[in-house]
């Protein structure tokens, strides 16, 4: 297909990814449900509860239950992870001192997220939610959503983040090692990098076969029928195929300077998705 990314430059890839997400922004949430049978919600719920934002024992603050925590949700799109983080922190853990910056390279996705926040979140949660335009590979040059093109850029400072999350975003990056280096830079020592991403289900050959047929056959078709956009969804399926295995990606996280526990990842639904975590020592 014309999305054969092997031969294109980083800049070209970035432009195509921008095109894909601009064209899917409006239909993105509905399509996620259709393509994964709603499963992405279960994965996201599990991802967020496994991180348990708001309960933050690794802190010098006198009371871990109300310790301030700053979460940076990278490639946050329309807000699914950020909203769950705020709910868990503020409502379940009763810790109002948790703030979330939701950042994405694509202002169209962020705008949908901002509208959703305004209609779905209580004012107290909206007050601690920031929307920032940023390329994950370079967090030294970001902009608040909606800032004028000539507004000065802002650097996310070194060692300013307690928890860095990226869900279904990293496989779209042109330069994953650069993004991991930036994650390492902005995290405080003791801070956590956490990634939820499609992965390899090849530990179960029969299941894998069915899954591959579904994704290569049905997803571009659903994209065409529901969103009128076959190419973007074809790209999404191919980007999953190209993404490294659980073990390869774990090794990249370690190479960026993180420490991982155990094997360094958790498979979800037989490896259709996986969670990787690392701590900045
Ligand atoms: N995290 C959200 C979720 O789980 O619903 C959104 C995931 S969406 C599949 C992927 C997002 O990655 C898109 O919003 C896209 O704009 C963003 N993205 C792609 N390349 C990026 C980059 N280099 N830096 C930051 N965000 C990027």
From TrEMBL:
<comment type="similarity">
    <text>Belongs to the methyltransferase superfamily. LaeA methyltransferase family.</text>
</comment>
<keyword id="KW-0489">Methyltransferase</keyword>
<keyword id="KW-0949">S-adenosyl-L-methionine</keyword>
<keyword id="KW-0472">Membrane</keyword>
<protein>
    <recommendedName>
        <fullName>2-methoxy-6-polyprenyl-1,4-benzoquinol methylase, mitochondrial</fullName>
        <ecNumber>2.1.1.201</ecNumber>
    </recommendedName>
</protein>
<comment type="function">
    <text>Methyltransferase required for the conversion of 2-polyprenyl-6-methoxy-1,4-benzoquinol (DDMQH2) to 2-polyprenyl-3-methyl-6-methoxy-1,4-benzoquinol (DMQH2).</text>
</comment>
<comment type="pathway">
    <text>Cofactor biosynthesis; ubiquinone biosynthesis.</text>
</comment>
<keyword id="KW-0808">Transferase</keyword>
<keyword id="KW-0830">Ubiquinone</keyword>
<dbReference type="GO" id="GO:0031314">
    <property type="term" value="C:extrinsic component of mitochondrial inner membrane"/>
</dbReference>
<comment type="similarity">
    <text>Belongs to the class I-like SAM-binding methyltransferase superfamily. MenG/UbiE family.</text>
</comment>
<comment type="subunit">
    <text>Component of a multi-subunit COQ enzyme complex, composed of at least COQ3, COQ4, COQ5, COQ6, COQ7 and COQ9.</text>
</comment>
<feature type="binding site">
    <location>
        <position position="78"/>
    </location>
    <ligand>
        <name>S-adenosyl-L-methionine</name>
    </ligand>
</feature>
<feature type="binding site">
    <location>
        <position position="104"/>
    </location>
    <ligand>
        <name>S-adenosyl-L-methionine</name>
    </ligand>
</feature>
<dbReference type="GO" id="GO:0032259">
    <property type="term" value="P:methylation"/>
</dbReference>
<feature type="binding site">
    <location>
        <begin position="135"/>
        <end position="136"/>
    </location>
    <ligand>
        <name>S-adenosyl-L-methionine</name>
    </ligand>
</feature>
<dbReference type="GO" id="GO:0008425">
    <property type="term" value="F:2-methoxy-6-polyprenyl-1,4-benzoquinol methyltransferase activity"/>
</dbReference>
<keyword id="KW-0496">Mitochondrion</keyword>
<keyword id="KW-0999">Mitochondrion inner membrane</keyword>
<keyword id="KW-0831">Ubiquinone biosynthesis</keyword>
């Amino acid at each position: 297909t014309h999305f054969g990314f092997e031969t294109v430059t980083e800049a070209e890839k970035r432009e195509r990814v921008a095109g894909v997400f601009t064209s899917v922004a409006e239909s993105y949430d509905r399509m996620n449900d259709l393509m994964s049978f709603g499963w992405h919600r279960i994965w996201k719920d599990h991802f967020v509860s496994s991180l348990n934002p708001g309960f933050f024992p690794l802190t010098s603050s006198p009371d871990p239950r109300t310790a301030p925590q700053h979460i940076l949700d990278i490639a946050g799109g329309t807000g699914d992870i950020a909203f769950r983080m705020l709910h868990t922190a503020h409502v379940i853990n009763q810790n109002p001192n948790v703030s979330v910056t939701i950042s994405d390279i694509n202002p169209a996705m962020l705008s949908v997220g901002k509208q959703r926040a305004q209609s779905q979140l209580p004012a107290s949660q909206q007050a601690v939610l920031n929307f920032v335009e940023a390329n994950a590979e370079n967090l030294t040059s970001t902009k608040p959503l909606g800032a004028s093109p000539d507004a000065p850029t802002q650097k996310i400072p070194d060692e300013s983040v307690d928890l860095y999350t990226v869900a279904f975003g990293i496989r779209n990056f042109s330069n994953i090692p650069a993004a991991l280096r930036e994650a390492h830079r902005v995290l405080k020592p003791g801070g956590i990098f956490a990634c939820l991403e499609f992965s390899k289900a090849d530990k179960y050959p029969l299941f894998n076969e069915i899954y591959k047929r579904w994704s290569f056959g049905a997803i571009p078709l659903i994209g065409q029928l529901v969103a009128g956009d076959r190419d973007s969804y074809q790209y999404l399926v191919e980007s999953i195929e190209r993404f490294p295995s659980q073990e390869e990606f774990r090794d990249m996280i370690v190479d960026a300077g993180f420490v991982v526990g155990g094997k360094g990842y958790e498979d979800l639904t037989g490896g259709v998705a996986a969670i990787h975590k690392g701590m900045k020592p």
